[in-house]
Amino acid sequence: MALRSADMSTESGSKYTPYCRKQKSLGLLCSNFLSLYNRDGVESIGLDDAATRLGVERRRIYDIVNVLESVGILARKAKNRYTWKGFQAIPKALQDLKNEGLKENCHGADGNCSEKVSDDDEDETYSDTNNLSQNNKSNPNSFRKLSEPKKSGDNRKEKSLGLLTQNFVKLFLCTDMELISLDDAAKLLLGDGKHTSMTTRTKVRRLYDIANVLSSMKFIEKIHHPETRKPAFRWLGLQENGPANESKKRVFGTDLTNSTLKRCKVDGNAELQLQKQVKHQSSENEVDTSRTSAKSFQFGPFAPVNVPKVEASGNGKPKQVIDWESLASTYRPQYHNQALRDLFSHYVEAWKSWCSEVAGKKPIQLMS
DNA sequence: CCATCCCGCCAATAA
DNA sequence: TTATTGGCGGGATGG
């Protein structure tokens, strides 16, 4: 149902939709997802609900959810159902990842450790649904953890987006590499040299997906290698090193939220055709009329936060961080559902929560 | 050109 | 069986 695509028929006179790819990116979707569910008392998230409200196919929700789960924000509860853990769960999840990575690592006595972390099932957040040991005989391998079985005839779980995400993150957390290109990551993560062609290609594709999501959450950032000119990613999420207490101070760049509605390119007003069903009833989660007013933050009278390529906007300072609110508002999402409308106002709050709950500490640059 | 990565077919898995 | 999950790679988009 709802085969939605670039469709420009029906009226040969209207502005044909240009189809801006960025509007459909996983990064944007992630931002929207986060904004949508970071609200007050969200505890359970239904995949169908998410897909509907975000206006995307189910498949994309799986992508998002898998990577978010890898970082602790979500936890799978049941079929079609995830539990919202929130940003506060991130630090621990990352710490766990780091520990695991460190443990699994350091194989050889060599100083150089090119890790090949591989399988590792669900992260244990202790206080969690402890499933009963319901292992049936028909599952040969259920107990296996360390000692990478190089004969990975394993299930396809090894290739899951979630695991890839975790391993990717571990790379940043456990290695001294501060800049990692996706190509290198792919080679590193798929261990031995059994590829050479499409294997890497495919892996890199997945890493792009992951990187987009992680970027939208500001865990990583894409930059161009100074010398090599090649694009790579740098970790800028919170890192541990907080001895016992973490300072709850500022995080990444101060946000300046401008929620100026803006669109990507030509206005696509041909999107009302798919409004055949306008059921705006709150599908599943009851929408409580919580505080929606952007009380806390005032939108700075900011100009045109451009997005990726800063190109001399009216701003004199070339220093500029891109945060996802701006990002999201810049690319006018054309998902239907007017729930999206509130999202924008909630971006600010979401961001605030994120800042206060998580003690990001990498003192990345701040403008001003 | 080449880096990026969306779309959705269709196969594993779960109910 | 059907429904849910989600690898996987073609090929379009954007630079």
TrEMBL record:
<dbReference type="Pfam" id="PF02319">
    <property type="entry name" value="WHD_E2F_TDP"/>
</dbReference>
<dbReference type="InterPro" id="IPR036388">
    <property type="entry name" value="WH-like_DNA-bd_sf"/>
</dbReference>
<comment type="similarity">
    <text>Belongs to the E2F/DP family.</text>
</comment>
<keyword id="KW-0238">DNA-binding</keyword>
<keyword id="KW-0804">Transcription</keyword>
<keyword id="KW-0131">Cell cycle</keyword>
<protein>
    <submittedName>
        <fullName>E2F transcription factor-like E2FE</fullName>
    </submittedName>
</protein>
<dbReference type="GO" id="GO:0000981">
    <property type="term" value="F:DNA-binding transcription factor activity, RNA polymerase II-specific"/>
</dbReference>
<keyword id="KW-0539">Nucleus</keyword>
<dbReference type="GO" id="GO:0090575">
    <property type="term" value="C:RNA polymerase II transcription regulator complex"/>
</dbReference>
<keyword id="KW-0678">Repressor</keyword>
<dbReference type="InterPro" id="IPR003316">
    <property type="entry name" value="E2F_WHTH_DNA-bd_dom"/>
</dbReference>
<feature type="region of interest" description="Disordered">
    <location>
        <begin position="113"/>
        <end position="158"/>
    </location>
</feature>
<feature type="compositionally biased region" description="Low complexity">
    <location>
        <begin position="127"/>
        <end position="142"/>
    </location>
</feature>
<feature type="compositionally biased region" description="Basic and acidic residues">
    <location>
        <begin position="145"/>
        <end position="158"/>
    </location>
</feature>
<dbReference type="InterPro" id="IPR015633">
    <property type="entry name" value="E2F"/>
</dbReference>
<dbReference type="GO" id="GO:0000978">
    <property type="term" value="F:RNA polymerase II cis-regulatory region sequence-specific DNA binding"/>
</dbReference>
<keyword id="KW-0805">Transcription regulation</keyword>
<dbReference type="InterPro" id="IPR036390">
    <property type="entry name" value="WH_DNA-bd_sf"/>
</dbReference>
<feature type="domain" description="E2F/DP family winged-helix DNA-binding">
    <location>
        <begin position="21"/>
        <end position="86"/>
    </location>
</feature>
<feature type="domain" description="E2F/DP family winged-helix DNA-binding">
    <location>
        <begin position="156"/>
        <end position="237"/>
    </location>
</feature>
